[in-house]
Amino acid sequence: MTIGRAALTLAVLLAAATRARVAAAQFSAAQPAEYLLSTDVYDGRAVWLQPAALSRRQEASVAAHLTLDRAARDVALADYGLTVASGGFALGWQHDRQRGGPDGTAWALGLGLGDGRGGAGFARRWYRFNGSTHGTFDIGVRFQPRALVDLSLLWRDIGDAVVRDTVHKAVIVPGIALNLLGGRVRVGGESDLVADGLGTSEWRAGATLALGVFTLRARGVFSSGLDGREVAASVEWNGRRARLNGFGARSRTDDRERIGVSGAVIAQPPTRRFGGR
User: Fold this and answer.
1) In whole angstroms, what is the distance from residue 207 CA to residue 231 CA?
2) How far apart are alpha carbons 151 and 138 in whole angstroms?
């Protein structure tokens, strides 16, 4: 996919997104956002992180995840969900169990156009909480100019959202990753730029090590002043027809720990990727 085609697709998606509404639901981050960067994702998890990556790999899969939350020695079920992806399309669902409050549910529907070197994508997310449903948009592009470099640009939460009584403004997320040692080592970083003022609200940096069928990841989250906020690590096993992942994350801001697992069954991939070659 050429840069021109990706830019044209993004322009069309941006025009559609101007009708986004302000979301007033409460929700938690989707599990993949706890340990991945937007430049890392390549399967159905991309519907929550970078929809442009839905066309990165020709794959059909059904996945499930579950997360536990630990605070003050009290362990509770935090969320669980399902994702179905095929040929650039993906549908995700997550049910959040809030401590001391009503549960919430999030849905995500995404489409990625392109191939392994580049593409554009669009996702619509709905949040249902306390009897009402609201939604936001994500729009992204990605490009690999050389085998060494992956570039990503995402406009997330268009329409803004109220999360746990806090307004989360739409953010622009530029990201870059470097593929080293033939792709066995990968280092990357990204930042959240508040769309209405372009001020940085958060930085994230991570590293990936591929060891045969296993992939090890580490990620740190930092404030705009580069104070450490959170650290996460994960290990993933990749088979021909299945994928298993486990992660752990610890937050310094609220002294909270999260542990989660996910698994995917990989079906026979489609013969043609939507929008691909």
Assistant:
1) 12
2) 17
User: Nearest to residue 163, comparing CAs of 23, 26, 24, 22?
Assistant: 26
**Are residues 67 and 260 in contact, defined by beta-carbon separation less than 8 angstroms?**
yes
**Domain coordinates in residue numbering, the chain:** 3-267
Q: What is the pTM of this model?
A: 0.82
Residue by residue, DSSP assigns 25-38 as ---PPPGGGGT--T
- Paired strand residues for 136: 125
- Please write the tens of the pLDDT for every residue from 178-200: 999 998 999 999 999 886 666 66
Contact 78, 102 (CB under 8 A): no
Whole-angstrom distance, CA of residue 73 vs CA of residue 227: 25
3-267: in CATH 3.30.540.10: no
Determine the Cα–Cα distance for residues 200 and 194; give it in Å rounded to an integer. 6
What tokens does 160 get?
């803004």
pLDDT tens for 46-99 read 999 999 999 988 789 999 999 999 876 788 899 999 999 998 999 999 998 876
The structure tokens 């549908």 sit at 91
CA proximity to 135, closest of 120, 122, 152: 122
Cα 176 to the chain's mean position, in Å? Answer: 15
Provide the token pair at 177. Answer: 């990753």
